[in-house]
Amino acid sequence: EPEVTQTPSHQVTQMGQEVILRCVPISNHLYFYWYRQILGQKVEFLVSFYNNEISEKSEIFDDQFSVERPDGSNFTLKIRSTKLEDSAMYFCASSQEIQETQYFGPGTRLLVL
Amino acid sequence: RKEVEQDPGPFNVPEGATVAFNCTYSNSASQSFFWYRQDCRKEPKLLMSVYSSGNEDGRFTAQLNRASQYISLLIRDSKLSDSATYLCVVNSLKAAGNKLTFGGGTRVLVKP
After folding, report:
1. What does the pLDDT look like over B16-32, one tens digit per residue?
2. Which residues of B touch A26 (CB under 8 A)?
3. Of A86, B6, B76, B94, most Cβ neighbours within 10 A?
């Protein structure tokens, strides 16, 4: 069964450093998403991406965040200058069509020290 | 008011029993509704979509009440493996966006 994959599974970084989280969506999916979940809290939407551009973003997704689809398979989330409060589990998701089910990757656990 | 609100639980359920819980949503324009399951430190996994007419998938039954803006999930004949956090999820479809809004989850613990 096709699945969304994410790398790395864990990332530890120093405050102020840049991190890039990588995702490989399901191959025939056209819509891509990033969500995050701070420990003990609910899953929160960050951004959706379609046709090589952002289609919607939340207020969390400020200028420190960016997304890119650098090639035909990868979908990345970059945090330019990490803050302590960026520590969370980051989930990538994809869907085939806009109204279709979103399938989630296993997540990257980011710890900012 | 929270966009999607759930009783956090935990619901302690004897194995084989039935458990039911609800969630409420605030946005009347919401179009799609789902129950996802999340195991500890894992990704959310779709359990079932929720349709206006109500739907059943094996031991799981979901209901949607648009007038009162709530969604319910019922689990029959609970198994130990049903222990998880159940996430109520709402999709307010926009022209280009497809944002899922999650509730905080209801924790279910099935005990022998």
Report:
1. 999 999 999 998 888 88
2. none
3. B6
* Separation CA B73–CA B55 (nearest Å): 10
The answer to whether A50 and A32 have CB atoms below 8 angstroms apart is yes
| Residues of A within an 8 Å Cβ radius of B | 31, 33, 35, 41-45, 48, 50, 55-56, 58, 89, 91, 93, 95, 98-99, 101-107, 109
Q: What is the bridge-based pairing of β-strands A43-50 and A31-37?
A: antiparallel
Under 8 Å CB-to-CB from A68, ≥6 apart: which residues?
A75, A76, A78
Q: Per-residue confidence at B54, pLDDT binned at 50, 70, 90?
A: confident
Concatenated DSSP letters for B44-94? -EEEEEE-TT-EEETTEEEEEETTTTEEEEEE-S--GGG-EEEEEEEE---
Q: Which residue has the higher pLDDT, B40 or A100?
A: B40
Closest to B18 measured CA to CA, from B65, B73, B71: B73
